[in-house]
Amino acid sequence: MVQAAAVRCSQCQQPIVSGEGFVSFKIPGKETYQFFHCRFRARDCWEGHLKKDG
């Protein structure tokens, strides 16, 4: 039996469940990706990540 890998948000560390909106991007020079909740409303994890870096 194969178990699905859990994907966690890089901002809040909560799991991203099936059907929930998220964004992901590959880290340049590495083989890893970062995932963020993206709920299309203010104060989502992706928006918080962008504000922190900018």
Task: List the main descriptive attributes of the protein structure presented here.
54 residues; two-stranded antiparallel ribbon; globular
Describe the overall structure:
The chain is an alpha+beta fold and 54 residues long. The chain has one helix at residues 45-53, and strands at 22-26, 33-37. The protein is globular.
Alpha-carbon distance between the two ends: 44 Å
Radius of gyration: 12 Å
Which shape, going by the Cα principal axes?
Answer: globular
- Secondary structure class reads alpha+beta
How much helix, percentage-wise, in residues? 10-25%
How can the largest sheet be summarized?
2 strands, antiparallel
How would you summarize the topology of this molecule?
Layout: E1 22-26, E2 33-37, H1 45-53
Antiparallel strand pairs: 1-2
Give a brief outline of the structure.
By secondary structure, this protein is α+β, with helices and mostly antiparallel strands. Helix content is 17%, strand content 19%. It is globular and about 30 Å long.
